Amino acid sequence: MTLSPPTGKLLDQISVGVLTSSLPREVIDEAIAQHGKGAKRSDGKLPPHVMVYFVMALALFGDQDYEEVITRLAQPLARWGCWEWEAPTTGGLTQARQRLGWQVMETIFSHIAAEPVADALTRGAWLSHLRMVSIDGMVLDAPDSAANAAEFGYGGGSATPSVFPQVRLVTLNECGSHAPLAAALGRGGGGKGTGEQSLARTLYHRLEPDMLLLADRNFHSFTDFTQAADTGAQLLWRVKDTLELPVMELLADGSYTSLVMAPKLGKRQRTQLIEAAHQGRDLEAAKARRVRVIEYELPDRGRGGPEVICLITTLSDAIAMPAARLAQAYQQRWESEGANAELKSGLRGPGRVLRSHRPDMVRQEIYGYLLTYHALCALICAAATEAGTDPDRIEFTRTVRLVRRRVVDPAAFSP
Length: 415
Description:
By secondary structure, the chain is α+β, with helices and mostly antiparallel strands.
């Protein structure tokens, strides 16, 4: 059977195979319209929606230049015998990226990421009825341009600054699928309001009552814990061993109830709050919260002795959620670090620097990475769920290689 040439501009027909499977065209068009980035000419060679796919493809082919990436997208149409359009130059693609901006990509990501990927049958995604999510951060190297340096700064401090300007990225991820649910970008070179805690604070409103948030000790503060708890989500956070946690009641599973208190309270106020808690009286939420504490040791891993883990949780029922079960669930938090490694090394490539020399294009590029990574996670999760296995058992880097081949396969495109 002979395929009929597609109607309209050929680039309008590009569908980046598996990358677009979780990115409906209408979502792209709505974001473009919202930010006033619609094409100025109906016969434009690089319409905005194509540039969205192009930015995602830049993430998939991080070691290829612009013209090579657009050629990879054009190859399927050429194989059909209906490709008569001359590929744009690097300069034309750069200008089209600049016209698109980064806000469109952020809006698209926020919309796509708002819907969880794991379903009720996905292994490793749930603790009872609670969807496990975790939060973590990383830094990405950007090209050493004056604009990037001014916007993002250099990491490592003044004594040993990083070679490249660095962007800090904090993500909220599903534990089962690793898919990012929300993200925040900031200066990797430091400055007020740019650390992991500050960026994470901007993501807590994305939590929902059916979620269990796992977080490492670096994210804990009384303010952050209470802000996250007030969303209605359940929390299971590791805390530093220096945190004062008075024993209120010992429970049968080895855990105990306690209080976390605002750090600026004096000794007398703390004593009064502890007494009030013992008497069962209501506590002022801005000063103290009741928690359950779970402590356990990890075997010596060459660090001079066993590591003590101290967790605090809002899950107070020791019968429904015994300490051993929660300790095991907390190990899923490492999947957030695993997700960062997949995005940073498995997709982007180890040691690779982002390609954009302007801060707005750096942001656009990072959201392209997030969208592409989300699409890959969705693909892996769907395959694993259908096979009845944990998504962790499907190798991420192998999936990336398969998808890279699939993008240039004519079967991945609809004529």
